[in-house]
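can u do me a favor
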């Protein structure tokens, strides 16, 4: 199943890469990015409190559309963050996943012009879990903000901030994640 998904994703990305883009930020957009930052988290499990600051790796996927001369974008955004060797509220060192699925908006200051500043933000549902315990997911609201610069047509660098509160049974987690993303966008 996993191999089929990877093959399907590769074929889709290859197909989009061959699609003749008109290089105008209007209509359909598809983007992906990778980044690095820091996760500031606090957890409460029953009466035990735990806080940590750890390096975090991030993947970012966007799919949506742009309108009004390339100034405005509305898209579905998925920001997934991995934190390795984080001491959880239960006292174990685990790899943690923070996954924010949001409806997002971007404003590009130069519209269809390449190479310019933009601001993005989104609000959505955050999923928090230990990487090998996908059946035990905590849910809650999440929000992100991003300020970036398109340094070359289709490529940008951005500073991001993400905040999420999740809860499941007696475990409550608050996460504040900051970092840098490098994005590629088809339009």
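np, heres the sequence
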């Amino acid at each position: 199943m996993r191999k089929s998904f990877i093959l399907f994703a590769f074929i889709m990305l290859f197909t989009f890469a061959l699609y003749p883009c008109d290089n105008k930020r209007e209509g359909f957009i598809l983007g992906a990015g990778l980044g690095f930052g820091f996760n500031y988290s606090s957890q409460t499990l029953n009466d035990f409190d735990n806080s940590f600051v750890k390096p975090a790796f991030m993947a970012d996927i966007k799919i949506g559309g742009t309108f009004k001369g390339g100034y405005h974008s509305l898209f579905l955004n998925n920001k997934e963050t991995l934190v390795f060797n984080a001491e959880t509220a239960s006292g174990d060192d685990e790899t943690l996943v923070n996954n924010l699925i949001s409806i997002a908006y971007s404003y590009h200051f130069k519209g269809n012009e390449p190479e310019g500043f933009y601001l993005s933000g989104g609000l959505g549902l955050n999923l928090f879990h230990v990487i090998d315990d996908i059946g035990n997911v905590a849910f809650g609201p999440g929000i992100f903000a991003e300020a970036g610069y398109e340094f070359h047509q289709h490529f940008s660098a951005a500073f991001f901030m993400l905040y999420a509160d999740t809860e499941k049974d007696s475990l409550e987690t608050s996460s504040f994640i900051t970092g840098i993303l490098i994005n590629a966008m088809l339009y």
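Residues 2-18 form the longest helix (17 residues). hope that helps!!
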